[in-house]
Specification:
This protein is an alpha+beta fold and about 90 residues long. It has one domain: Ribosomal Protein L30, Chain: A, CATH 3.30.1390. Helix content is about 50%, strand content about 20%. Helix 1 packs across helix 2. The structure holds L-tyrosinamide. L-tyrosinamide binds next to strand 1, helix 1 and helix 2.
Length: about 90
């Protein structure tokens, strides 16, 4: 058992839907997850094809904030895009 506990990490999962424009998902990945255009496009297409995908991995507080930001920003722009948390 290590003496210093490493914090549990959480995946922020993006969910696919039929209506959110691809460019908007790319924008989300750049704005909130620090991805460049190429990385963001790759993750977006992965989600589009497989139904869900990992936008990033964070400690609980940070992951919760990212999920809120994604869901709020999508709602504000009237897109159904949703994200959720999953323990790593
Ligand atoms: N499926 C969407 C489309 O065809 C694009 C999309 C990708 C939406 C990823 C959400 O998390 C998502 N416009």
């Amino acid at each position: 058992m290590p003496r210093v506990e490493t914090p549990k990490m959480y995946k922020v999962i993006l969910l696919n839907d039929d209506y959110t424009p691809m460019e908007f998902v790319v924008l989300i990945l750049r704005r909130f997850f620090g991805k460049n255009e190429d990385e963001a496009t790759k993750v977006m297409l992965d989600v589009h094809k497989k139904g869900s995908g990992v936008a990033g991995v964070f400690t609980l507080e940070v992951a919760e904030m990212k999920v809120m930001q994604v869901n709020q920003y999508s709602q504000m722009n009237e897109h159904p895009l949703k994200s959720t948390l999953e323990e790593e």
